[in-house]
Amino acid sequence: VQLQASGGGLVQTGGSLRLSCVASGRIFSNNGMGWFRQAPGKERESVSAISWNGGSTVYADSVKGRFTISRDNAKNTVYLQMNSLEPEDTAIYYCAAARGSYGSRGADVYAYWGQGTLVTVSS
Hints:
- By secondary structure, the protein is mainly beta.
- The chain contains no helices and eleven strands.
- The strands form two sheets. Strands 2, 4, 5, 6, 9, 10 and 11 form a seven-stranded mixed sheet that branches. It has a four-stranded antiparallel sheet with strand order 1-3-8-7, with no helix packed on it.
- The chain is globular and about 40 Å long.
- It starts with a strand and ends with a strand.
């Protein structure tokens, strides 16, 4: 099982980016997915998570109303639409696949992790 994240880049404050994470292998359509991020000098934190069918989503308070997680099971892809970006959003963003059907903001439910994509927001 491999997870390939992409879509990061350099954007100005207030801009938008859409991250994608493509899963290879048999795992995806029955598994919850999550996005995490790690800023320089900080611990990894949960950003958002989504259930296997997209019916349940959760967000960190810091991104509520600005970020939207979604998935397309036909494409084995989970997305993170990020709007109104702030310098505090600068981090490496990682996608992860849960062992079960529901995502969670807790890292311990995730069995597979992607390599990360860098998001830099300039002020």
